[in-house]
Amino acid sequence: MIVLRRSAFRALFFWIALAILPASAEDFTKGAAVIETVSGEARRFAMEYAITVGEREQGLMGRKLLGPDEGMIFDFGATQSAVMWMKNTILSLDMLFVNEKGEVVGVAERTQPYSEDIIPSPGPVRYVIEINGGRAQALGITPGSRVVQGLRPPS
């Protein structure tokens, strides 16, 4: 009888643990995005999409690796002032603040891992795109650049 109780307890523990574990890379919808720089160069990325409240809360927290041409698009569903932070985020990131039209209106470069400091958008935005810290500067992505493909996940 004791063995059966232990087995039931273990099963319950693992079921609860799986329910509260953070989302992994496999849980996000994936697609491709193209950002056109002010000078007209097309920068291609493999993106993951954070659409739901839970996905946006999870974001890239706990992620140990992000390829040089990978990132995540946070879609807030409507234009609003957005605030981000780096709590439980291991990687330094660049955050691209993007309006409804796909224009990059601001860039927060090389954000500090694990910081709980608030990173506000420079005004109302619909999207925030996170890429590896330093990539925006390296690729020439600045305010005025445009996301010309992939703001929304593939259907």
UniProtKB/TrEMBL annotation:
Gene3D superfamilies: Protein of unknown function DUF192. InterPro entries: DUF192, Saro_0823-like_sf. Residues 1-25 form the signal peptide. Pfam families: DUF192. The keyword Signal applies. The keyword Signal applies. Keywords: Signal. It comes from the Bacteria. This is DUF192 domain-containing protein.
